[in-house]
Amino acid sequence: MSAAHETVSPGSARAARYVIYAALIFLALVYLLPLYVMLSTSLKSLDEIRGGDMLALPGDPSIAAWVKAWGEACIGVSCVGIKGYFWNSIKMVVPAVVISTLLGALNGYVLTKWRFPGHKLVFGMMLFACFIPFQAVLIPMARLLGAAGLSNSTAGLVFVHVVYGLGFTTLFFRNYYEAFPDELVKAAMIDGAGFFKIFWRILLPSSGPIIVVTVIYQFTNIWNDFLFGVSFSSGEASPMTVALNNLVSSSTGVKEYNVDMAAAVFAALPTLFVYIVAGRYFVRGLMAGAVKG
Amino acid sequence: MSFLQIKNLRKKIGNVEVLKGIDIELEKGGFLVLVGPSGCGKSTLLNAIAGLLPLTSGDIVIDGQVVNDLHPSQRDIAMVFQSYALYPNMTVEENIAFALEMRGVAKEERAKAVAQVAKTLQIEHLLKRRPSQLSGGQRQRVAMGRALVRQPRVFLFDEPLSNLDAKLRVEVRAEIKALHQNTHATIVYVTHDQIEAMTLATKIVVLKEGMVQQVGTPAEIYNRPANLFVADFMGSPAMNMLKGKVTAGGGIALFGNGGVTVPMPPSISSALPAGKDVILGLRPEAITDDGLVDPTARAIAHVEAEVTMIEPTGSDTFVTGKIDGASFTARTRAEVVVELGQTFRFAFNLDKAVVFDPETGHRVV
């Protein structure tokens, strides 16, 4: 035990610990409350919801609202549920994440291991791109997509997200590769590996932790994006977030809170899934042993 | 004709000239050690030979071929790095085979080559492990295996032992020496450790501030250092440097006015004009107690001096003596009775003396 602990009596240390845990548990509950309301509401019938007790457990849980949200709910004039838009989002987010992560890794590799005159300026400009507000690029981007024939298409959205994500992914990988030993690259050069061989065989396999971080970051951002989605797509080509908005704001007859909630949970599931699956691969120490440990 | 030639090599980094015209030749099968204090340019020179740094001017010739503009992989060299630089994502086997794989060697042949190298280095049981599962000494061995498997024309070692603990360092040093004796490989080896340089080299190059100070066999460097820097840098404890003046009788007067005049063997005194200021260099083992005097020595002087420090090493004892502000270190037998503050009778063996010009720092004789 360090000396700092000895100055605090065991009793007061324990009391402090109780206070800390109580505060943490309370805050966690506050944070989880909306999720609980969403889930329980989505499992209730409309009658029960109208009863007014938002925090009550569902009396007769039913997944009818989930089924409806997925396949039958009306978004605008078409009543086919959100499933089409869900796939739209998947088709947008997967390529956008893969491409922006790979390009970010490649940029980080070049900016640390194959430095060229002006590399700092290039990196600085990429960092700057991170701080340009989305709103500022909407109109130029719309013109560009129009000129490229990518308006209102998933490919167009992929392009926008790759361009916008590149600054961040480059930053992540550059900082990670900055600490990657140069001697490994030198050794690989002497061994006869070329530019891409070194990248594929040496750098990338050692990038597990940073790939996970980048993928989680990019996936969450792109999946949750609303502004680009609503600006550069419409109707059938919309991503999930836009469809969810349209579903909730479509006002024909009664407001089906349970269906809205179920759709919202669907919209949140993939990011949750990515955190749970990829979080496991946040393994530290993948680099141990490259140099003297 | 020499196998590795470095001709008037210069390297500028920014505005700083790191290497200022290096000329070195090494015969096939030679073991060249580049030694010098940190910042002397030895690692830069090694990286230049490897092709990892472009040259500013000069030539590097391997086996008659100018390799200046060849990519590192085409120079037929292999390098062992200070940090070992093992690929963390590959097993030991894959690490060793990587260079062969990059060169398109067939799988069976690779396996055969890896097996042979593993046998030589006794790392067969480690082949399936990853670098993170190895100890420092094992990693070092794998790094050597990665170099050996290629059978390159020249091996480059960049301070390969500096990350090992003292005991292991001595062991691996002996292994490298044995490896060189068995394979007759041509090796260029960088170190700042003068003992490594002495034990391993067939040829030592002492560098300082990007310039070659002396090239020679370990014995030449040790016994006949070209200047004060080399004399001071090589050997531990360092060589004693005593200011003196040449007397009319061909001896050297040391320790100012109240000092002693030591006689010089004729081979040295004949080259010294009387009245000249000089610096007399004597290694600690050339200053002993009476019992350790070399019976074949022709010029012995006895000097009485106050003892200011005693450092027993077990096998010998280093005794520091002081006269008139000038200190010197002697290597005496462990059994000798010395006491701090007492006067002790030191025996100077002047056969081993080297004499430097205090103005230029160069050796006179």
From TrEMBL, chain A:
* Any Pfam family the entry gives: BPD_transp_1
Q: Which InterPro entries match?
A: MetI-like, MetI-like_sf
Major localization listed first in the record, in broad terms? membrane
One Gene Ontology term from the biological process aspect of the record = transmembrane transport
- Write down the membrane topology: Multi-pass membrane protein
Annotated compartments: Cell membrane
Q: What GO cellular component term, any one, is given? A: plasma membrane
Q: Say yes or no: keyword Secreted present.
A: no
Source organism, top-level taxon: Bacteria
Q: Which PANTHER family match?
A: ABC TRANSPORTER PERMEASE PROTEIN (PTHR43879), GLUCOSE IMPORT SYSTEM PERMEASE PROTEIN GLCU (PTHR43879:SF1)
**Family per similarity comment:** Belongs to the binding-protein-dependent transport system permease family.
User: What protein name does the entry list?
Assistant: Carbohydrate ABC transporter permease
Which species? Answer: Rhizobium deserti
TrEMBL record, chain B:
Localization, UniProt:
Cell inner membrane
GO terms under biological process: carbohydrate transport
**Which UniProt keywords are given for this protein, alphabetically ordered?**
ATP-binding, Cell inner membrane, Cell membrane, Membrane, Nucleotide-binding, Transport
- One cellular component term from this protein's GO annotations in UniProt: ATP-binding cassette (ABC) transporter complex, substrate-binding subunit-containing
Pfam families named among the record's database cross-references: ABC_tran, OB_MalK
Domain ABC transporter span(s) in chain numbering: 4-234
- InterPro entries, from UniProt? AAA+_ATPase, ABC_transporter-like_ATP-bd, ABC_transporter-like_CS, ABC_transpr_MalK-like, ABC_transpr_MalK/UgpC-like, Mo/tungstate-bd_C_term_dom, NA-bd_OB-fold, OB_MalK-like
GO-annotated molecular function: ABC-type transporter activity; ATP binding; ATP hydrolysis activity
- Kindly give the CDD domains that the UniProt entry links to this protein: ABC_MalK_N
**What is the membrane topology noted in the UniProt record heading this document?**
Peripheral membrane protein
Give the record's family classification.
Answer: Belongs to the ABC transporter superfamily.
PANTHER family in alphabetical order: ABC TRANSPORTER ATP-BINDING PROTEIN, MALTODEXTRIN IMPORT ATP-BINDING PROTEIN MSMX
The entry's protein name is ABC transporter ATP-binding protein
